Amino acid sequence: MEGYVKSYSEKKGYGFIHTEEYGDVFVHKSGIKEFGHFGLQKGDPVTFELKETSKGRQAVNLQPLKSY
Q1: Among 1, 11, 45, 52, which is least packed by CB within 10 angstroms?
Q2: Nearest CA to 63 among 46, 50, 43, 38?
Q3: Separation CA 22–CA 39 (nearest Å)
Q4: What is the domain-level CATH number for residue 29?
Q5: 49: containing domain
Q6: Tens digit of pLDDT for each residue in 22-41?
Q7: Cβ atoms within 10 Å of 42's Cβ, excluding its own
Q8: What is the average pLDDT across 48-63?
């Protein structure tokens, strides 16, 4: 899936990704692919997989959207 960073706190280790289809989706730092190799900034385009958890939908395998 694709979306963009709505908010993310490095200090708290989580934030939200906005998608057209599902609205806002939670993301935890553990769901960021290659965590630490890039910082999530508001408005950054990203790709990710959607995972259903007991607390709702969560973004996993999140990475920056590559532009060519």
Answers
A1: 11
A2: 46
A3: 23
A4: 2.40.50.140
A5: 2-64
A6: 999 999 999 988 765 567 89
A7: 10
A8: 94
Provide the total of helices (H) and of strands (E) in the chain, helices listed first: 0, 5
Residue 24 near residue 13, CB atoms below 8 Å: no
How far is Cα 27 from Cα 17, in angstroms, rounded to an integer?
Answer: 7
Total number of domains in the chain = 1
| Residue 27 tokens, joined | 């993301």
The strand pairing partners of 5, in sequence order, are 17
**What is the residue type of 23?**
G
Amino acid letter, residue 6: K
Cα 45 from Cα 67, distance rounded (Å): 10
